[in-house]
Amino acid sequence: MLYLKCTGIVQKALGLPKTLLADAEPTSAQLGNWYVNRFDVGRRKAHVFMSETTLLSFILLQGKTPVTTETLPTMMLAGLTQLLQMRGMSEDAIERAMVHYHDGLFARTDSRPDLGSLNDLAQRYQWMIECDGGLDRCDLTRIIMGTNNMPQRRLGWCSSWDMTQSKLQLLS
Description:
Layout: E1 2-6, H1 8-14, E2 34-41, E3 44-51, E4 57-61, H2 71-86, H3 91-97, E5 104-108, H4 112-131, H5 140-148, E6 151-152, E7 158-159, H6 160-168
Helix pairs in contact: 4-5
């Protein structure tokens, strides 16, 4: 089961009433449940996704059509697949890594440390994009890969990639 733990900003953007938010349960998925936040980059909206177990993250820019409760889980899974492919993981390993993400539910954020990490990542992505000259000039792939290579205090100074690879090593 995939639980997308949405911030209030995402809940409001999706028109997601609190009554439709599930209580997230622990998952056996190697990358755990995912946190989602939304922020502005120039004149566009971006969604940042973060694994609660590895702090692996990526951003996806919103297109012309609004993101809905039906499209957000699909966006997340497609973005995660693309991120793992860019890192050089085999298709078989990627498929097995996402086997537990067959159904998706929305949930509240339930961890202050995870929410703090998510907000820090959103600010870092905003700052890096602006420092690289905005969306038109920046290398978004380099920014995402570099952010995931950054040592994290919450991970014992390992990077998100190190944690992700250690969780998925049995799958490779």
